[in-house]
Specification:
The chain is an alpha/beta fold. It contains 13 helices and eight strands. It has an eight-stranded mixed beta sheet with strand order 1-2-4-3-5-6-7-8, sandwiched between helices. The mean pLDDT is 93.
């Protein structure tokens, strides 16, 4: 126990100053938007009169994961990206509710504030699960779906309807998160680890050290209760494009078949030699198909 305590003390990683993080990573003060008591970090680019696509990042991510796609799409679409509560530069949710239902309520409230009756949704991993759930439960608000390696089906050892057990080693992340350790955990998400540059690792690391971020991440993990997705997926009417790296080590590429079988009007873009983050790893391979899908009438 003494050795463990000493190790924690040596590796203790305090939160970073929020004002300093905003100076480094906030593009404009107007990108901080108050929604239901939460200060959400939102980037809104492209023509305001154009069809809108709203982008949702995955667990531990931020709106910067979409940088390349946003740049490539904002010439013809209104591209709206947000940090979910307790992620990136968005403040933690004061209610402590990090369920998908709460996330969907906040997204709909943001759309209302932006006067968007409808929008297409792009979601990665956890954000993909939130996106397809919103499309299934609020079809009148969703035009099209782009799902990048979405979460939703159980993995071996998991069960629908049960809260997961969060390993103690992962819970210690609240107190100790040296950058080398984070990089070690991020690396499996990339088939080509050269994509995980020091700059990208620093971005992930800095934003995870935002005040309250690690506590929010742990709360989100504990509140992740999966339901059998098939009934919801089968009810989706929005045209859907699945984007999946065939070397995905986080959510297996074999899950893609489950989605295409369940979602009507769905198609798959399979990317060889690509991992869990195609929008970061090889945007040049995925962006043309995504742009064509979102802009076609």
């Amino acid at each position: 126990m003494l050795i463990l305590l000493l190790s924690l003390w040596l590796l203790w990683t305090p939160d970073l100053d929020r004002a300093d993080l905003e100076r480094r990573y906030l593009a404009a003060p107007s990108d901080l938007v108050e929604v239901q008591g939460i200060r959400l970090h939102v980037r809104d680019s492209g023509p305001r009169e154009a069809p809108a696509v709203l982008m949702l990042h995955g667990f531990g991510g931020s709106l910067q994961t979409w940088d390349a796609w946003a740049q490539g799409l904002s010439g013809s679409l209104r591209v709206i990206r947000l940090d979910l509560p307790g992620s990136g530069l968005s403040t933690p949710d004061p209610t402590g509710d990090y369920s998908d239902g709460r996330a969907i309520a906040l997204i709909l409230a943001l759309m209302d504030q932006l006067q968007l009756k409808r929008a297409s949704l792009a979601g990665h991993s956890m954000g993909g699960r939130i996106a397809w759930t919103l499309a299934a439960t609020h079809p009148q608000r969703v035009d099209k779906l782009v799902l990048v390696a979405p979460d939703g089906f159980t993995s071996p050892g998991e069960a629908y309807g049960e809260k997961p057990e969060v390993p103690v080693t992962l819970q210690l992340m609240r107190f100790t998160l040296p950058k080398w350790l984070l990089r070690l955990n991020l690396a499996p998400a990339y088939a080509n680890t050269s994509t995980l540059t020091d700059e990208r690792t620093t971005l992930y690391h800095d934003l995870m050290l935002a005040p309250g971020s690690r506590q929010a991440l742990m709360a989100r993990l504990r509140q992740r209760v999966l339901v059998d997705p098939r009934p919801l997926l089968q009810s989706i009417r929005a045209p859907t494009l699945l984007v999946w790296g065939q070397q995905d080590a986080m959510i297996p590429f074999t899950n893609a078949a489950d989605y295409t079988q369940a979602i009507p009007h769905s198609q798959l873009l399979a990317l060889a030699s690509v991992g869990h983050l195609p929008q970061e790893e090889t945007p040049e391979l995925s962006l043309p198909a995504v742009r064509d899908f979102l802009t076609q009438k």
